[in-house]
Batch of 2 targets.
Target 1
Amino acid sequence: MKVLIMGCGRVGAHLASLLETAGHEVTVLDVDPSGFGKLPLTFRGNALLGDGTDGDSLRRAGIEEMDAFIALTECDNINIMAAQIAKSVFNVRKAVCRVYDPTREELYRELGLDTFCPTALMAESVMKRL
């Protein structure tokens, strides 16, 4: 599977490594080149400077050939917008985005986006431990 990850923070870099180890082709896109330092030295995928809400950046990253797009920046609005662009404009089969606000996650899920909310996941994890 060909996967494009937008955002090379801790989660993006770790996910890129996991996916690559599992045999997938991975491209990571970030607006800050310092994030690429979080990738393991063994990472063989592509690391590109660019904005996941910009069509030219997405084309340079090979969005038209991707099977999946994952938006992992720190900003809900950017993640949502990028996932919508990947899915609606470039017809990427699987577009996933991180959304920190649980209320927004539910709303965007109802609109057809595949979302996950670390805030809700963490709260549920703590509740299970109580």
Note: The beta strands are 2-6, 25-30, 46-49, 68-71, 94-98, 114-116.
Target 2
Amino acid sequence: ELFGHEKGAFTGAVKARLGRFQMAHGGTLFLDEVAEMPPLGQAKLLRALQEGMVEPVGADSPVAVDVRVLAATHRDLKARIAEGLFREDLYYRLNVLSVAVPSLRERKDDLTLLVGHFLRRYARHGDSPSLSASAWAALQAYDFPGNVRELEHAIHHACVLAQDCT
């Protein structure tokens, strides 16, 4: 997925496929939940970041890539390093600039913006859905252990039910 493959590199590789690094060449690649990457993937990612080269599966030679990488995780990477689950050298390669985003329960002021965004995303074309005062009160009182993804799911669910009830 990240590095691509050549035609015939493995069973089912009926055509060559660019990896995410090659697709992002000259731009930015977002890696979500980087802490969940297995050790072999971490080693390959580190090599790609250090050398600016990727080697598609089945390729004869590496391919140069110029990519800015943004990585995110909900895990404490220093704790993962201490547990032997994340490479320290990869941590320092990725951690050029760190931005800590508090959980939704710590930034309830963002609810208005996020709810509005998700309502527009999941509403039927032309609809302008809104929430009742009691729905807003329930959202503001809830701690969202599933963070923004849980809020998105709740709004999506509500939009589906509201559309089926018309």
Note: The radius of gyration is 21 Å.
